[in-house]
Amino acid sequence: MSSSFGKLFRITTFGESHGGGVGVVIDGCPPRLPIERGEIQRDLDRRRPGQSRLTTPRQEADRAEILSGVFEGRSLGTPIAIVVRNKDARPEAYEHMRDVYRPSHADWTYDAKYGIRNWQGGGRASARETIGRVAAGAVARKLLATQGIEVLAWVRRVHDLEAKVDTDSVQSGDVEASLVRCPDPEASKAMEERIDAARERGDSLGGVVECVARGVPAGLGEPVFDKLDGDLARAMLSLPACKGFEIGSGFAGTALTGIEHNDPFTPGPDGAPRPAANRSGGVQGGISNGAPLVLRAAFKATATVRLEQDTVTSAGEATKLEAQGRHDPCVLPRAVPMVEAMTLLVLADHWLRQRATDVLPRDDGAR
């Protein structure tokens, strides 16, 4: 099983949803970066369960412990290990599903691949695995902030409710003021009501998280197989419940002609070319062009619902399932810090890769 991501800024996550704990090992973080546990905790608090009535009622403080790689508040350049202990695991709540495959969950596919699975919750397929990603993303956020790079995500859509958000001006405070993490107050209220209704009837909803990365310099990304947008797509689609990825105009761009879709260049403040529009989403030819990155990740509705469903047992017998346990009626509010984390990890990795590549003097005409 592959549990590692990245090349120079590389992470490996570990743990299961109802095991002793979950965490991450970060390899490749440069030395002397100031790192405080509270900065990691801030992002974990945005991801943790039980933070509002719109999320799973599982009560976990998700307190981060830094086991290695940080000394006197600064990174050592050695692997940084962070662990979060599981405190409110209730594996007995899944006893009735020991031999039953939950529809659209990873139960059957894990059995098909490994011939064994942890039926106590989702195991490695659980969104609890993303604790390690979010913790590592907080470290990447600190690293990228030294270069003036900022990453911010929000809920753009829940079910068929769409928010109107200005990607140039939206701020973190606007996002965090909403239980849904939607900075459009009118849409946020409607989304909250829609999620409440789904929760009450035992159902769930999906939607879209949008993300912007500001201050990204031109030149990040590798041609062909390690394109920046390709790595961002891989990062998002590795998240639990993520089923779609767009950057820039995305699928809507297919309705535009070439002249309508192109981003004309204008001279920037430093004389370097700058796109006058941003239908490319900040990436051209797999390499960042200096404009803000704008991407979207689509999340399906939570697979585990209380409504009765048809399924089969591990012996192949038809049965009915009314799932119990503690589940999010909508993953979108908690997916926001996950999308930020994966964007931060990709950018940190490609920023280090660019520094390793761009070591020789350039011609006078090159910027």
Describe the structure in brief.
With 367 residues, this protein is of the alpha+beta class. It has helices spanning 37-47, 107-114, 130-145, 172-176, 185-200, 228-237, 258-261, 332-357; strands at residues 4-5, 10-15, 21-27, 64-68, 70-71, 74-75, 80-85, 150-158, 161-162, 207-214, 242-247, 265-267, 273-275, 283-284, 287-288, 293-299, 309-312, 318-321.
Give me the Rg, rounded: 21 Å
Cross-sheet strand order for the largest sheet: 1-2-3-7-4
Can you write the helix and strand succession as a string?
EEEHEEEEHHEEHHEHEHEEEEEEEH
Percent helix range: 25-40%
What's the number of extended β-strand segments?
18
Low-confidence sequence ranges: none
CATH architecture title: 4-Layer Sandwich
CATH topology: Chorismate synthase, AroC fold
Q: What's the number of helices?
A: 8
Name the shape in a single word. Answer: globular
Q: Number of domains in the coordinates?
A: 1
**Can you tell me the CATH superfamily?**
Chorismate synthase AroC
Structural class: alpha+beta
Q: What does the largest sheet look like?
A: 5 strands, antiparallel
- Average pLDDT, rounded to a whole number, is 91
Name the beta content range.
15-25%
In CATH's first tier, which class applies? Alpha Beta
The N- and C-terminal alpha carbons lie at a distance of 42 Å
Description:
- This protein is an alpha+beta fold.
- It has one domain (4-357): 4-Layer Sandwich (Chorismate synthase, AroC fold), CATH 3.60.150.
- It is built from 8 helices and 18 strands.
- The strands form 6 sheets. Strands 1-2-3-7-4 form a 5-stranded antiparallel β-sheet, covered by helices on one side.
- A hairpin with a 5-residue loop joins strand 17 (309-312) and strand 18 (318-321).
- Helix 6 (228-237) packs antiparallel against helix 8.
- The two termini are 42 Å apart.
